Structure formats: C-alpha cells, structure tokens
Amino acid sequence: MIAADEATLDTLIWKGGVLVAFYAQWCRHCQSLVPKVKEAAATLKAFGIHGAAVDGDKEEELLERL
After folding, report:
1. How big is the chain by its Cα radius of gyration, in Å?
2. Phi/psi of residue 52, nearest 5 degrees
C-alpha cells in the first residue's frame, strides 16, 4: 500500500487500476480493516493493480472531490 495524497492518487489512477482505502487514524473501524485491505492490495498487485491509502484527515479536499 502506498500512502497517497491527491497527486499520487491521480498518478496511480492514470497508470491503471487502483484499490483506494480512505481512513482516519482515530477510526476503530478503519484500523480493523487494515489487515484485510493490505491482503487485498497484495493479491491485486499480481494483476498490476496498485494499492493506495488516503488519510481523510490530511486530504479533506480530495475526499470532497471524490
């Protein structure tokens, strides 16, 4: 998984498929999903699909855009 800001995410999207996980550090639900998202990203990497994690607290404008 790549920690992504808006520019990084845009680049990954133009490269092809991307699995994006939006999260907040304080969110228990987000924390519980981390292992599953990392597992999915590792599986998808074999198919050329990138994994990206976006911190919603740091990237509020990106969240609003999407």
Report:
1. 12
2. -135, 140
**Two tokens at 31?**
């924390």
In a 13 Å sphere around the CA of 47, the CA atoms on its Cβ side amount to 10
- Is-contact 19 52, C-beta < 8 A? yes
58 HSE (CA, 13 A, CB side): 12
Closest CA to 21 of 57, 58, 65, 56: 56
Alpha-helical regions (H) of 1-66: 6-15, 28-45, 60-65
pLDDT of residue 39: 93
> Is 14 exposed, middle or buried (CB count within 10 Å of its CB: 0-12, 13-18, 19+)?
exposed
pLDDT for 34 equals 86
CA terminus-to-terminus distance, the chain = 19
